[in-house]
Backbone:
């Protein structure tokens, strides 16, 4: 059994597994995709969830998605409002620390969240 690795355009590692049968014919057995995204640590995951909880208590819907990209353009993480709902979209392709930094900036930029965080820190 031999294994061949190739790099695809979308920056994912594709593993192709080939098996040679008794007659010497090559059979393609499986195709596995492995993401090259960095893994989240427990601390990063806990911090991300804490920030999402803070934003959700203030009425934001936080969504982590693969935002679209095209030739010479891409959509970046940001916030928007649809009627009375407020959304924050986080690009899931970003590194974990970049996603956390983005949400921290959103918490700091919102005056309601800032004052709520100050009240909690003063009470402690």
Residues:
């Amino acid at each position: 059994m031999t294994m061949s690795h190739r790099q695809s355009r979308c920056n994912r590692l594709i593993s192709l597994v080939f098996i040679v049968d008794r007659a010497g014919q090559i059979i393609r057995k499986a195709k596995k995709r492995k993401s090259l995204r960095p893994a989240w640590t427990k601390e990063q995951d806990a911090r991300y969830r804490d920030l999402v909880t803070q934003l959700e208590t203030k009425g934001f819907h936080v969504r982590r998605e693969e935002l679209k990209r095209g030739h010479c353009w891409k959509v970046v993480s940001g916030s928007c409002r649809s009627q009375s709902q407020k959304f924050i979209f986080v690009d899931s392709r970003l590194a974990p620390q970049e996603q956390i930094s983005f949400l921290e900036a959103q918490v700091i930029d919102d005056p309601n969240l800032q004052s709520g965080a100050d009240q909690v820190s003063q009470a402690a």
The mean pLDDT is 75.
